[in-house]
Design a protein that fits this description.
Structural class: mainly alpha
CATH class of the largest domain: Mainly Alpha
CATH superfamily of the largest domain: AhpD-like
Largest sheet: none
Shape: globular
CATH architecture of the largest domain: Up-down Bundle
Number of helices: 7
CATH topology of the largest domain: AhpD-like
Distance between the termini: 17 Å
Number of strands: 0
């Protein structure tokens, strides 16, 4: 796995003000990933789909980046988003795809 990307400014700000809170959130994330049979790649693709549903650009970037770092291809990342079209609607999918394509373009 590659070196962890720097945290966004808003994340660092919360971490500075509430370090115990961020630590607990990160521990929860680690615990739920270990709680089942999905590997990191699949887990991040699932979380990516949820982030797209929420229209959370930061979470879409984060989970797309981590899915790619875990071995997902750009096509798998895009597929994880378009799979939820009938659930979250085309506008949400289109927005998430644009955020993912920005990320993928920067990586190449």
């Amino acid at each position: 796995m590659s070196e962890q990307a720097p945290k966004p400014g808003w994340h660092r700000s919360i971490q500075e003000r509430h370090p115990g809170f961020i630590e607990a959130v990160e521990e929860l994330g680690a615990a739920v990933r270990k709680a089942g049979p999905l590997d990191d790649k699949v887990a991040h693709l699932v979380q990516l789909s949820a982030a797209a549903a929420l229209r959370s650009e930061g979470a879409v970037h984060s989970h797309a980046r981590r899915a790619l770092e875990s071995g997902a291809t750009p096509d798998e990342v895009r597929h994880a988003i378009i799979l939820v079209t009938s659930t979250i609607g085309f506008p949400n999918v289109a927005a998430a795809l644009s955020w993912v394509d920005d990320l993928i373009a920067k990586r190449h």
